[in-house]
Each structure stands twice: as C-alpha cells, then as structure tokens.
C-alpha cells in the first residue's frame, strides 16, 4: 500500500513541475546530448534549428514548439521523458550491455566501435565451410549503427548451406544478426540466428592493403565437442554503401571451391594451411 502511495506521489510531483523546471531539465539533457557532437553549429545545422535559438534551449531560457521537440527527440533517439528525467537514466533503462553492471566492460567496447574502426555498409566475407570442409562459404553482411549506442550486423546464411544440411531455406530461418564490440587491435562480434538457434563468435583485424578495406580473423561456432570443425579463418572485404556493389556480391554468395575464390581472399585464407 505504501509503495503505491509513493508512486502516486511521485507522479503528482512530476505533473506539478513548473515551466521553468521543465525548461531547465530539458536544457540540461540537451547539453548532455550535444556534447557528443564536435560543435553546436554543426548540430544546429543538422537539426535545422537556428543556432541562437538552440543555445536558448540548452540554457533553459526557451522551450521548443511541439514539432521542434519531436524533431529533437527523433534525432537523438530519445522520448519526451527528457522533460522530466536526467537523460543518463533514460539511456540506461531497459539496457543490459550498456547498463550499470556491464557499462565499463562489454558496454565500453560496444560504444568504442566507430566509423573509422569498422565502417557502416556492406561486406563480403569468405570462410571455410563448417559442414563441408572441401568448400568455402562466400556471403554478404550489412553493418549499421543505432545512434551512438551500438553497431549491428545482419545477413543471411547461404541457401546452399541450408540445403546441404536439410534445413528450411526461407529468409526468416536463414537470417542472422549480431552486435559489434571493439578489441585491443580489431573488432569482435557475437552473431545469432533467430530465436538463438545458433551462435558464433567472430574476431577481425584490419589487413594492410592498397585500399585498406580488408579484415582478417576467425569465426568460432558454438557446437558440442565432436561435431566437426568449430573454428576457421575468415576474411572480410568492405564494399561500401552502394547497393549496386552489394547486389553484385550477393550473386556470388554460396559455396565455392578454393580455386574459385577471389585471389586476395584466397591469399588471406591460406586454404592449404591448417588454422591455428
């Protein structure tokens, strides 16, 4: 009974906040959100808001119209709670990896993956097949970011690989998704198929090349001992953000022999050497 009274009292207190208190909370939160951008001028330009007016919002002197407030919330991927609560607490609600317990551990690495380290866009990957050791898998993935909080990866298992294992070939079954984190000298990511059907751990480090667009590492799958190969070498090639390049690469996805691999992919994977 006392808990419900406390909650009601808190709600009443929030609804009774004065316009000045709302402006101050909003201004404080806006300053916190703006500090992740190189300049207020650039941020104002991206938001389409006059810089002088934006400074008034941050100082708590003025409050935006509903349409401007909606634009600000959409841009920063927050909601109207920024009028009532410190944005730091809003950002952590419902989060696990960036929540208080893991923020300085897994969360720290997730927040460090920037465009320079691992650009957003399409990647072609090549690795030895886990289900047929004399073949290689060529695939396509898409890397993208959600604000400044996380970098995600998604793709689809090759139809040939699913068919080889007698599994359904529909897109929902083949789709996999994952999250990236920084590593001391590269990036690592965990990937899963829908409903946690399978998991894999991936590690990549950039390879010195003419265009600086290759990464080399390995992938490890989570299977029982005795279920065949569990770790193999893997190469990633950045294709950029152009859909045409992605579609061209997608047409080559599937099983391949070592002889048919792209020359530099074959050079990186060293198919004649055992992986250590």
Supply the key terms.
434 Repressor (Amino-terminal Domain); Lipocalin; eight-stranded antiparallel β-barrel; elongated
CATH architecture of the largest domain: Beta Barrel
Ranges where pLDDT stays below 50 over 5 or more residues in a row are 1-15
Helical stretch tally: 11
Radius of gyration: 24 Å
Average pLDDT score = 83
Structural class comes to alpha+beta
Give the quaternary arrangement of the chains: single chain
CATH level-3 fold name of the largest domain: Lipocalin
Kindly state the percentage of residues in helix. Answer: 25-40%
The total count of strands amounts to 9
For the largest beta sheet, what order do the strands appear in spatially? Answer: 1-2-3-4-5-6-7-8
CATH secondary-structure class of the largest domain = Mainly Beta
Order of helices and strands: HHHHHHHEEEHHEEEEEHEH
Superfamily (CATH H level) name of the largest domain: Quinohemoprotein amine dehydrogenase alpha subunit, domain 2
How many discrete domains? 2
- The best one-word shape is elongated
Overall description:
By secondary structure, the protein is α+β, with helices and mostly antiparallel strands. It has two domains: 2-93, lambda repressor-like DNA-binding domains (434 Repressor (Amino-terminal Domain), Orthogonal Bundle); 121-269, Lipocalin (Beta Barrel). 35% of the residues lie in helices and 26% in strands. It contains eleven helices and nine strands. An eight-stranded antiparallel β-barrel has the order 1-2-3-4-5-6-7-8.
């Amino acid at each position: 009974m006392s808990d419900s009274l406390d909650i009601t009292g808190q709600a009443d207190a929030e609804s009774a906040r004065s316009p000045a208190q709302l402006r101050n909370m909003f201004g404080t939160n806006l300053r916190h959100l703006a500090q992740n951008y190189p300049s207020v001028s650039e941020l104002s330009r991206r938001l389409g808001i006059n810089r002088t007016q934006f400074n008034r919002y941050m100082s708590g002197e003025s409050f935006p119209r509903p349409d401007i407030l909606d634009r600000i919330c959409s841009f920063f991927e927050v909601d109207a709670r920024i009028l009532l609560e410190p944005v730091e607490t809003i950002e952590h609600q419902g989060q696990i990896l960036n929540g208080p317990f893991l923020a300085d551990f897994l969360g720290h690495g997730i927040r460090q993956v920037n465009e320079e380290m691992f650009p957003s866009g399409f990647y072609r990957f090549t690795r030895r097949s886990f289900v047929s050791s004399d073949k290689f898998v060529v695939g396509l993935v898409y890397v993208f970011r959600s604000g400044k909080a996380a970098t995600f990866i998604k793709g689809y298992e090759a139809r040939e690989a699913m068919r080889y294992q007698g599994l359904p070939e529909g897109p929902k079954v083949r789709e996999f998704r994952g999250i990236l984190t920084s590593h001391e000298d590269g990036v690592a990511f965990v990937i899963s198929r829908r409903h946690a059907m399978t998991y894999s751990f991936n590690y990549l480090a950039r390879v010195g090349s003419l265009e600086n667009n290759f990464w080399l590492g390995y992938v490890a799958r989570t299977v029982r001992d005795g279920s065949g190969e569990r770790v193999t070498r893997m190469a990633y090639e950045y294709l950029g953000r152009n859909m045409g390049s992605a579609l061209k690469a997608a047409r080559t996805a599937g099983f391949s022999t070592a002889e048919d691999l792209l020359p530099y992919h074959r050079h990186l994977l060293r198919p004649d050497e055992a992986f250590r």
